[in-house]
Amino acid sequence: MLLRLLEQSKEPLVLCVAAHDIGEYVRHYPHGKKAIDKLDGKVIIMRLLENPDSNVRYQGLLCVQKLMVHNWDYLGKQVDISAGNNSNSTSNGLGQRPVESRA
Predict the structure, then answer these.
(1) Could you write out the DSSP letters of every residue in 15-29?
(2) Average pLDDT for residues 19-43, to the nearest whole number?
(3) pTM value?
């Protein structure tokens, strides 16, 4: 519904509120990013960055940021899981050797 508003509306206030609400949906609902991706929402949201209204661009950028933060949080958890599985190895979970301090 919100994505449809982003596609069809030209009113800056409607676009700002819809972008904000999508960002909050992604932030609070664990599977929200997948739901938005299924509906090609990322493309629709990215179009807001070309809008002539600065408030619409700002809300679009915040929404994209929330999509990316959710993605980075997920990737960070995957690295933590990987590091836990390799706790006996010499790597730090990122495929790198730990840095030794020289005191």
Answers:
(1) HHHHHHHHHHHHHHS
(2) 91
(3) 0.67
